[in-house]
Amino acid sequence: MNLWRTLPTVCVTLWLLRKFIRTRRKGNAALEGRVVEATSNELSEESAPSHGATESKPHQYDVFINHRGPDVKKTFVAHLNAALRRDGFRPFLDAKDIGQGRHVFKSIDKALKGAGVHVAVFSKRYAESKYCLNELCDMLRSGQVILPVFYGVNAEDLRWIENGPFKKGFEKHVKRGRTEETGKWKEALRKVADHRGFRLDEVNGDEEQLIRSILVEVRSALPATLLAGKQRYGMEGRLKEALNSLDRVNVLGVVGMGGIGKTTLAMEIYDHFVSHRQFERHSFLKDVRSRSSSEPSQLRREFMDAMGLGDCDVTNTGEYGRVFEGSIPGRVLVVVDDIDEKGQFEALIPDIGKLGSGSRIVITSRYRDVVTQAMAGAERWEVYDVPVLNEYESRCLFNRHAFLSETPSEGFADLAAKVADACGGHALSLETVGASLFDKKGPEDMEMWSEAVKALEENEDVFGKLRSTYERLPTDGDRAMFLDVACMLIGMEKEVALMIWKSCSGCTGGQCSTLRTPGLSLRRLMDRSLVRVDEEGKLRMHDVLRDMGRDMVKRDSVKKERRRPEEWTHLWDARVAAKLLSSAETKPRIRGLCLGVGYRAKILGDGESAGVRGGSASNIASQLSGMKELHLLVLDGSYVEVRDENSSWPEELRWLQWRRFRGGQLPSELKLPHLVVLDLSGSEELTRLWEDDADIKLPVLQLLILSECRRLVELAENFGQSVPKLKRLEMRWCGSVKRLPESIGRLTDLEHLDLSWCRNLVSLPDAVVGLGKLKTLNLQDCVSLQQLPEELGKLTSLETLDLWGCTCLSDLPASIGGLKMLTNLEARHTAVTNLGAGFGMLTSLTSLSMFGLRSYVPGTFQGLQALTSLDVYGASADMGGLGALTALKDLDLSGHKTITALPKSIGNLKWLVSLDMSHCPELVTVEALPEGLERLDLGECPKLTEIPSVAGMKSLVHLDLGNCGSLRHVRGLECLTLLEYVNVSGCTSMDGRGIRIMGNRALRECHVGGSKIGVAFDNRWVEGGPSEQVITWMGNAIPLLTNGMVNEVVLLMKLGRTSALVLECVIAREAKCMSVILCFVTGRLGRSSDIEVKVLRGGRFIVQSLICCRRLNDGIQVWLCTLGREHQVVQSLQQGDQIQVYFTTSFNFGGTCRVMEGAICVVHKEDENHILMMNSEVLEKKESQDMVLQFGKLVLEDTSD
């Protein structure tokens, strides 16, 4: 009986104890970072939804995700969380992210209140969690944006609790005595039901598309204060360029190497259009390359569902095509991501023309040729090459992954910059390396930082992506070519490299036996973004690709094992190569070998080389001769002495680069039967190539480079016989050469002869006229050259003749008219001032440049019908015949000494786009001008009084009338809406009152001082226009702004560079910066002055920019410089950054430069109102708005009166 009496007490005690233990367990789990989830219906209401992350400052989280963990945590919400983080947002998801030792529910409450956007995911059992419902009430009270996501439920289910999936949950709450709370919970659900939300069924169950739509809305919903730190580095500029392309075309191909950001850019394009609701339907087909083989039917099904097409058997290509033939109604947006075959695109979109009018397609691929083939059926298409990130973007992206901040931790700034720069702007490498170093910040980890980039070789996420592109190249020749470039040929001219590869067409070596079509192979490498050709025509390769290529040389492609160095096909490291050559083993596999190690090294020869370390000379020489497949050899700065008569050079050698050759002449019995390129540039000790009687045999040599062999006196008399197939001879800066041998006339294949800066060369041999294939003859700055061969006209293939700086040359041969193929004649800075009768016969001439033209034979210009560019600076000849040059595009008559009026016939030159008549002291009138002009320069013409109206010149972008002191009118200026540069300063006779330059979005630079013309300035630059704008006028005060300078700054102008800090300012607001305005009052400027703007973060320069300040006159003038939202300085600014502004001068002699006043004004955008900060003071909102209004009405004009 006693037991039964005490049983109730025992039960109550056990129940309390159980509850206490459960509570402790929950607390401990939260402190340990574990998630507490419901495991049964009974416990589900006791389980707090997963939320958290570390709380350290306001706005620690951008997005609060309200959800019931057991329903969607491991599926939809996990994917949403990952997508938000990839996009740079900080979501609050679950208790795992709460820092250890922090109170779980306090942290959740803090995160809820601090987040800028709330996402509520309503699942079928959502209402069973009281925590979810309480959070929903708090979210409504916060006033922040709420984005409802209806996952398996509808908005109606939130309004009618009694009849839907939430009914069961509320019944449980009532049973548990929560009657009071159920009322407010129902009211909260009804309010949220009225919000515009996202439904899974609206996107046909496509979770990925649903998540992308949510991301777009989150981005637009977050206030500017939270978005300020969320730059998608490099994306803004790329997106703008891509969108500009899509304004012109209906299909855009996005190409680039793996990991460069193609898919990211495509998603940005997609999100932009979806958020602006510009298309009726849209589809993002991701990872098409990999999914085409594993799930092709699913891709078609996704596309059909997104386009609203009817059901069909998607496995049946014919049936799918027939459904597609029915055409897709309306404007649609389709992104086809990552294809590597044309068929993958056509399997999804059989006919581009069946898409509705105004539709847009974006295709991403590593292969340019595949993209162009896929787009072939489009009406208009373009290809966009995704560029690498610049230095600033690279460092920010790296720091964001390594430090979770754009700035590195203290003590890591230099190291972080070095590692980031080593990634070469490759986005995936920056992210991967940065993330790998996130938790390595101790002193013992420094070595890991220095090895981080090298460790990329083992990272399959990066190298695996790139390696697959290499391995999928269609031929062995393509792969061999890629390895040649990666290991040996980066920086070589494309044409020279092709010259080498073409010579292998008959090669039997295993390394290049398949290199039969080098032109096509190189094109494929370029199409796959593995190799590029820069603006100078040189082969370039990203550092990450280079390292990947060299890694391929080091590993066995079949066994996937590391090879020993002696098994490599290319040896690019001179130290490794020298060590291997000192061994006794032969190296038959080697195709490329680098032994050049600098100016002082002695690699091969007498065994004294530090690199060889005691190897015998004969052994080293025999090693070279034993390399049967050696094609590419670099010996820069090395000394090779072959003493063994049985040794010889490798016979298959195609390219020998022996810069800084350390000898007076080449070996007397040099026999290289297959050598096509020999580079001896910079060989200071070389006095002659070889003796006249030397038995030199270079039978197929096509390119010989002797540039900067400053002691070279002459070429051997048998030069022409020794190199009979030579096509290019480069002898720039061979200052000791006085003559060329007559045997040069035997070089019947020679196409390019470069003798520029051979300053002792007196004449050319007459035999030169026998070079029937010569296309280019460069004699630039041959100051001792007195005459050209009389029969020069026999060079019937000559296209370019460069005589610039031949100051002793006064006449051109009469036979010059025979140069029927001549297109370019450069004769500036010569004594040639007359055009003889033969000039009129140069019917192919497109460009002619010469100074001081005095006379020409009448009718000469009538024969120059192909001439598009004429520069006759400083001429004194009558220019009445210019109207006959009907193809002329660029005309420079600047400095003409006698011309008083521009001939009327100039107005007939309908193709003329640039006319320069500046510095013509006698010019009085200009009667007619072609309306197609884009550049017109009439500055510094003191007698000029009249010019025709410019109103009809709708294409004019550059107009310079500066210091035309007699000019009375300039009519139509306000009509030039494309004008980027205008200078009417110093036009003191002009009455410009009432004339306003306004409404011109393109204007970058405007100078109006002294003209009385005004230029309207307002705040519209935040909506568009150039990223940088400079306006100057005469005056002695800054309008509206307070002088921010402590003292006047005076710079002494001297030879070299002088710089002084003028203004500085700290960004005090968190809101995004939209513009920076700089104002100055200056005295006399130097000829070369600049405003230099620097941004410092944590005491370290992160961005700097130069603004050119050309001297317009010697008076006091005001400068207004606006840096708009697209400017790199403005884009980089964050709260706490310091702006420093310097005035600099350079290359001036004597005098001073004065900066008397200055001000800096930063414009923010917050709630659509412009908030200004002037100097270092943040203005009150009302004061700021008043100033914006004043700026909007401001007209800047001459106030010197």
UniProtKB/TrEMBL annotation:
Q: What InterPro entries does UniProt report for this protein, alphabetically?
A: Apaf_helical (IPR042197), Disease_R_plants (IPR044974), Leu-rich_rpt_Cys-con_subtyp (IPR006553), LRR_dom_sf (IPR032675), LRR_R13L4/SHOC2-like (IPR055414), NB-ARC (IPR002182), P-loop_NTPase (IPR027417), TIR_dom (IPR000157)
Give a yes or no for keyword Nucleotide-binding in this entry: no
Source taxon at top rank = Eukaryota
All residue ranges annotated as the TIR domain in the record: 59-222
Instruction: Give the signal peptide, or none.
Output: none
Q: Which GO terms describe its molecular function?
A: ADP binding
Q: Give the coiled coil ranges.
A: none
Keywords per UniProt: Leucine-rich repeat, Repeat
Q: Which GO terms describe its biological process?
A: defense response; response to other organism; signal transduction
- Keyword Repeat (UniProt): yes
Which is a Pfam family this sequence falls into?
LRR_14
Name of the protein: TIR domain-containing protein
Species source reads: Ceratodon purpureus (Fire moss)
